Amino acid sequence: MDYGIYAHVPFCTRRCDYCDFFVAAGVRHDTAGFFRTLERDLARAVLETGPAPPGVDTIYVGGGTPSMVDPAFIGGFLRECARCALPAGDAEVTIEANPETVTPESAAFWLESGVTRLSLGVQSFASDVLSPRGRVYDGDGACAAFHHARAAGFDNIGCDLIAGLPGETLETFEAGLDRLLGELRPDHVSIYLLETEESLKHTPLSRAVREGRAALSSDDDVVRMYETGCERLAGAGYRHYEISNFCRPGRASRHNMKYWLSTPWIGIGPSACSYVNGRRESRPADMSAWRMEVEENGATRAPVPEASEAWREALILQLRLVAGVDPGEFSARWGGDAPPLLEALAAEPGFEDLIEREGASYRLTSKGRLLSNEVFARIL
Fold this sequence. Notes:
This protein is an alpha/beta fold. Helices cover about 40% and strands about 20% of the residues. The strands form 4 sheets. A 9-stranded mixed beta sheet has the order 9-10-8-7-6-5-4-1-11, sandwiched between helices. Helix 6 packs parallel to helix 8 (about 220-235). It starts with a strand and ends with a helix.
């Protein structure tokens, strides 16, 4: 089975106040030193997969803002991936990009270096929503970045939106959808929900909300934004294939499918996680600790705390897919008690309208996708 590679490049010009990823923002970066260590991390991680170089059919460079570094570093890293592993001829190679970093020159360089897919963090098209959150572009800038990538030759571009950022209304969110679907027509769209203060408890935005300096959209408004997005995207021919993800035919994120189907991937860089040989492991969410592990201790990885039974975690991940879970096929791979659990859950008061059976499979209903955390907590 082919592996994926995820590389975490944590550099950012500034931290967005809703972000809870590991980033190194607003500091001087030794970019060359970072990529040397990243390549050593890669070489060690590849050895952990087995005696022969693994086949690789997806590479995902995320962050952070990997698009802010000199594109030559991205090209060098991708060459190292090809040296250490066996990339498939049709490998999906993704880079995450913020709109202000995409120029005709950078887009062309990424494409020439082997990047096949661009994931563009638009988040919103409304300037008065973006600026207070730390985003340094506006709706026109997001559209310009998209057009630069298309003109360079990218035929697989995804755009991310966030429903519920402070200041976003149903009207401004719909106006953004108008631009997205009318002007850009991307190949992939993600709509993430900014739901409650609890989900932001470790971020500057959470502190601003607690101190009365910012107000989140109401839950009802967030639901309406999400449902409107689902309806508009379906009407425009996009397939809803995961809770937050929509695609044109054949444009689902092959790399992210590895996460939801629990197929192997190698994670390198600070805070990255891996799933190799049936084990989930993580790297330190600290630049110095990560570098010390790689350079002094041979990149020994720390096990990620698992759910009490691994099959439950795998079940939760696969239930994120709109297609759902065939319990027989799932149990053949994972064991566990998925068939009786899903049957009982679909009939349990309070959950019968959140999960349903269709043919041989169980899947979340449209309401269940909005309340998926309640279903997942019940499974655990």
